[in-house]
Amino acid sequence: MTSSQSRRTFLAQGGALAGSSALGGALLLGGCGGSSHAAIGVSDSERPKMPSGIQFGDITDQRAIIWSRSDRTAQMIVEYDTSERFSNASRIVGPTATDATDFTTRVDLGGLPVGQTVFVRVRYVDPNNAKIESETVSGQFRTTPAADGTRAVRFHWSGDQCGQGWGINTDFGGMKIYEAMRLRDPDFFIHNGDTIYADGPILPQVTAENGQVWRNVVTEEVSKVAETLKEYRGRHAYNMLDANFRKFAAQVPQIWQWDDHEVTNNYSAAKDLSGDARYTEKNIATLTTRGRRAFLEYAPMRYYKQSEPQRIYRTISHGPLLDVFVLDMRSYRGPNSANLQTGEDASSAFLGSAQVEWLIAGLKASTATWKVISADMPIGLNVGDGKNARGEDVWEAIANGNDGVPLGRELEMARLLSSIKAIPNVVWITTDVHYCAAHYYDPAQARFTNFSPFWEFVAGPMNAGAFGPGVLDKTFGPTAVFSKSPLIQNSSPFAGYQFFGEVNIDPRSKAMKVELFNLDGVSQFAQTLPAAGV
Question: What percent of the chain has pLDDT over 90?
């Protein structure tokens, strides 16, 4: 059986599982390709469990992260092969899951064959008795394409998950958008950020539009704002209760980045929680440390390097057609302000100097046909954060609402855009604003003109309140070529305004097709971009 045949079989079997899982609680704890290895005389309660399934991540340069989580101290065992029969399997004894990392573990596989399907099996073994082991959870993924560039590239992106109190509703079918994406069989998925909503309690039921009742699965950790490390971890573990997510994660490698809700709404180092009665822990540095730690434990990402293991911005190369530049627009920003500074300094930073220079250098060095910049916030949309003591608007993103020459955080963006003006085939993707859109930035329509035209595509949310549309600042000349948003703000997933984006790169023409889909997998908009210089 060929790898492509095997993958089609896996898709079909997964689809069958999806259909059967519509029976309420089966959406939560059903296995994904699991098999039993029960030892004689060992009770089920003695065996380790795998409540969060498996994940694959950061596939690049013949490498892949294999992630999973036990429910107790146990040794991770990983087997992998290019045949689903595992006739020539490699076996790795991974790290021991302990409570120090909330029992999460990962293995960084190297030396993988390019352009092939890799089959994976993961289980956990009791460190004191090798006969006591968990179920085996199986999955598969495609490695990066070969250098000949003959394989098409397809990937998805979205973000904003379980926000505004809209959690896992098994009556609705759980987080259905994951199944819609899985059935389209992307090479990988970029989670743009707001992977959790640590500041948004999830209650047993919420009244949605038209009086509909949304019923949530609730755990102790999601019933209040996250403050302790246990509560932040519990937020991530909650999302993985959804069977749609676990099936998806066992098939589609992911690239995670973060934004604000992994800690608290619109946070920066200057965030003031003194007036928020929901929090007993008011120290934003303490909350940030806990939120970042939980994110890094649960994300299937490769830690950057020993000198900066918590760095989130990074490059993911996916063969000759694509490089992805994953940004961190949260960790290095100055305080949210009126955003009208006339010079670049720490107060006007958004990406920060080191990240800007890294991005410029990486884009200039890239030999890939397409360079996709994955940003956790949009460039030109006005995203507010209330008012300051002087009654001025305070801004959460880059734009400052004045439609004029670059000021504040726009100065950093102007420098970046002018520095990469000569680099062809740069596309931006983002989420954050909870609706979908396609923005075209044109220097002929801009107040700042020293840049080349480019597209920014917006997707999301995945399973959260839908909002919009936003207002575009004219500094960089954006036009909303397309947008789709609800009439009722904070519309529930019942209303259908949940979106993901898809990118297809044709290996012959090198053209990129960008398409926006709703949670049922129905296309909303498509734009084909010809590749320059090919």
Answer: 89
Report how far apart, in Å, the C-alpha atoms of 334 and of each of 27, 62, 269, 270, 346 are: 42, 37, 7, 8, 6
- Quick one: 323 exposed, middle or buried, by C-beta within 10 A (0-12, 13-18, 19+)? buried
Q: Are 140 and 182 in contact (CB under 8 A)?
A: no
- The partner residues of 57 in beta bridges, in order of sequence, read 65, 254
**In which band, very low, low, confident or very high, does the pLDDT at 28 lie, cut at 50, 70 and 90?**
low
Number of H helices, E strands in the chain: 8, 24
Please state, in angstroms and rounded to a whole number, the distance separating the CA atoms of residues 174 and 206. Answer: 15
* Integer angstrom CA distances of residue 253 from 293, 334, 481: 21, 33, 30
What does the DSSP 8-state code read for residue 209?
A: G
369: tokens are 């046909």
State how far the alpha carbon of 345 is from the alpha carbons of 296, 352, 448, in Å.
Answer: 29, 9, 20
Average pLDDT over residues 196-216: 97
Residue linked to tokens 């790169």? 505
pLDDT tens per residue, range 313-359: 999 999 999 999 999 999 999 999 999 999 999 999 999 999 999 99
Q: Which residues contact 37 (CB under 8 A, 6 or more apart)?
A: 123, 133, 134, 135, 136
3-state secondary structure of 429: strand
44: phi then psi, degrees, rounded to nearest 5: -60, -35
Residues 26-50 as b or e (16 or more Cβ within 10 Å = b): ebbebbbbbeeeeeeeeeeeebbbb
HSE-CB of 474 using CA atoms within 13 angstroms: 7
Which tokens in the block code for residue 69? Answer: 């989580």
The C-alpha atoms of residue 316 and residue 286 are separated, in whole angstroms, by 30
Q: How many CB atoms lie within 10 A of CB 221?
A: 19
Q: Residue 88: how many CB atoms within 10 A of its CB?
A: 8
